[in-house]
Amino acid sequence: MQSDTTRTVLVIEVGGTNLRAARFDLMDHALSDRVHAASPNIFGDGGRRDARVTLFRSLRAIGDDALRGGTPDVVAVAFPGPLAPGGVALAAPTVLGRGVALPVRRECEALWPDASVFVLNDMTAAGYRYAHRGLRDFCIVTVGSGVGHKVFADGEPLLGRGGRGGEIGHLRVDWHPDAPVCDCGGRGHVGSIASGRGVVRAARVAAVHDPAGFGASALAAASPDPSRIDSRALAEAFGTDDTWTHALVASSVRPLGQALAAIHLAVGVERFVLVGGFAFALGEPYRSMLADAADASSWELGFGWDEAVTFGLQDDDQGMIGAGLFAARQLGVAAARTLDNGTTIT
User: Fold this and answer.
1) Is 2 exposed, middle or buried (0-12, 13-18, 19+ CB in 10 A)?
2) CA–CA gap between residue 206 and residue 267 (Å, rounded)
3) Same domain as 124, residue 13
4) What is residue 86's DSSP assignment?
């Protein structure tokens, strides 16, 4: 297939907290003219209809900003939710809350009627970035507004025909009737406990129930009002080795460690690439906690969890670069596997 590598490619990643967009170069796979904005969602905007309408208006606006008013030839969108054939999101909990089908590709085609539009799951997109760098068999895991994953085998994502899979954040692990409510509306899901939003909610509850412990913690120094605890304050306190905050995070990370152990035991994957704003903000102690939690959830076969769970590239480009690489492949652009800085690898 012949292709024109001079086409203007717009890549967008939709997140529960942020929208990101950039121009993607089909030749060197580099991003330029990056822009970001707060993600409009049901949690901040007060209603699903408003959030949905605002979301697509925001996609157009951020796309215009990235291209400085120019018109894209290609648009590639990394979207947070399982995508059925045809680019329909079966759900988008971190953005729209409880289950709702959303025709993402159709809406984007209406925004950019003269462009070729590609839509894929955000974790699938992120995984393509690492497959392009040479990883073949691995699981990419994100801990941010929500929790998600995708298993790759021989460089390709493992998905059901209906687009389902890679949603370990919605595995129920807490069956108590008062278990935390997930963004999707279910209770006791991994994401409701182990996501950035989940840990912040847990910190607010714990601060009220343990006022003495909270009051003596670094988290109280960073955010004296429990109702105003946010992920920034939590990460700041966690970074001081504060005992109260570390115990809270360790408790929250256990269900995710259990989920990773289940993935390993089910399919044998031995490499876990950890990404996501919350995980990055907490850093190495968090990665170590997660590896320990996975180790404690599995039997002993000589598998080294501390070596298996590694951080990915710590930037905001995961989904955008992956979406661009996917678009390049769909367009028939022959590409050597390269590092993101342009260095070719074999």
Assistant:
1) exposed
2) 36
3) yes
4) T
Looking at residue 223, what is its pLDDT?
Answer: 96
Looking at the structure, tell me whether residues 176 and 302 fall in a common domain: yes
Number of separate domains in the chain: 2
pLDDT number for residue 174: 96
C-alpha distance from residue 183 to each of 142, 197, 198 (Å)? 16, 9, 9
What span, in angstroms and rounded, lies between the C-alpha atoms of 239 and 218?
10
DSSP string, 260-307: HHHHHHHH----EEEE-HHHHHH-HHHHHHHHHHHHHTS--SS--HHH
Do 157 and 130 contact (CB within 8 A), yes or no?
no
Print burial letters for 7-16: b (CB count within 10 Å at least 16), e (below 16).
bbbbbbbbbb
Do both 152 and 290 map to the same domain? yes
> Does residue 84 lie within any of the structural domains?
yes
**Full residue range of the structural domain in which residue 222 is found:** 136-311
Q: Is residue 41 part of a domain?
A: yes
- Cβ 62 vs Cβ 77: under 8 Å: no
For residues 254 and 274, membership in a common domain is answered with: yes
Question: What helix, strand, coil percent values describe the chain, rounded to 5?
Answer: 45, 20, 35
Closest CA to 324 of 106, 76, 66: 76
The terminus-to-terminus CA distance of the chain in angstroms comes to 23
pLDDT at 263: 97
pTM for the whole structure: 0.90
Hunting for tokens 């950035």 — which residue is that? 196
Give the per-residue pLDDT at 344.
Answer: 28
Measuring CA to CA, how many Å separate 187 from each of 28, 176, 184, 290?
44, 8, 9, 22
Please give the structure tokens belonging to residue 107: 């809406």
Residue ranges of the chain with pLDDT lower than 70? 1-3, 41-49, 99, 334-346
List the structure tokens of 150: 């995708």
